[in-house]
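Data availability (excerpt). The following record was deposited with the supplementary files.
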Amino acid sequence: MTCIDTAWLDARIAATKATIIAYEGAIDALESGTLSYTLDTGQTRQSVTKQQVGSLKNLLAYYENRLATLCARRNGAGLHVTPGH
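Predicted structure:
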């Protein structure tokens, strides 16, 4: 059984939420007629275009699934979670 502390999980959850918000912003802008958008996840910056909306939606789904998994782990699903240090 893997031991992950809650502080680590909380940090990963916060980072994943920020990434989701960034991807949603890019998708919304591109679907609203913007031809290119600077996607800034806080870790990377890249220029994306309307032609990449499909890929962005796939990545958004990945991060939403990641968030669900991290939240489940924090809430005790299948892992032993110890209090943060």
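Summary of structural features: The helical segments are 6-31, 53-74.
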